[in-house]
Structures are given as structure tokens and as C-alpha cells.
Amino acid sequence: MATTTTEAATSECLGSKLDHLKEHAMGVASRHPVVAAAAVSAVGAVGAYFLLPVAAPAVAMMKAPGAGGVLVSRAMFLAKKQLYFKLLRTVGAKAAVAALV
Q: Sign of the C-alpha dihedral, residues 18, 20, 24, 29?
């Protein structure tokens, strides 16, 4: 029972501190709009830095056949497989790999 009362007091204390912090931030933002814009940009950049690798799917790579070990996207190769082999036979490996981009 004592722990529940302590947790409630701690929660209430943290809640009031958070409210005070919000009020202070709003005051600074209203007095210094450039600082507020910079803070929003910084938070957005940090969020993008940490969340973008999770959101972006990994691209599966493979060695292009007949191109001496050049890595290409597996999805692009499968989408343009006939064109790749036609260019590989007629023009060469560089042009075939360039067609996959």
C-alpha cells in the first residue's frame, strides 16, 4: 500500500514538472520564434535519423550475371531481365548494368 502511495506521489510530481516544462517551452517559443523553429527542425532531424532506417525497407542486392561481380538491385533485375540479357549480348556489360538503374 505504501508503494502505491509513493508511486502516485511520484507520478503527480512528474506530471507537474512536465506541465511546468511545457509552459516554459511555450513561453520561450512565443518570445523567440527562431529558436522554436530551430528546435522543431532539430527534433525532426533526430527523429528522421533514428526512424528512417526502420521505415525504409532494405534493398536486396545480387551479382549481375555476366558483369564480373557488379552488384545490382534484385528487384530491378527481375523487372528488366529480358532487356538486361539483350543488352548484355549486344552492347556489353556496362550498358546492361546501366539499364537497371
A: positive
For 80, counting Cβ atoms within 10 Å of its Cβ (0-12 exposed, 13-18 middle, 19+ buried), the class is middle
Helix axes 33-55, 2-31, angle to 10 degrees: 120
Is residue 64 within 8 A of residue 93, CB to CB? The reply is yes
Which amino acid would we find at residue 71?
L
Residue 62 phi, psi (nearest 5) = -150, 160
- pLDDT tens digits for 20-69? 777 777 777 677 777 767 776 766 676 666 666 665 567 788 888 888 88
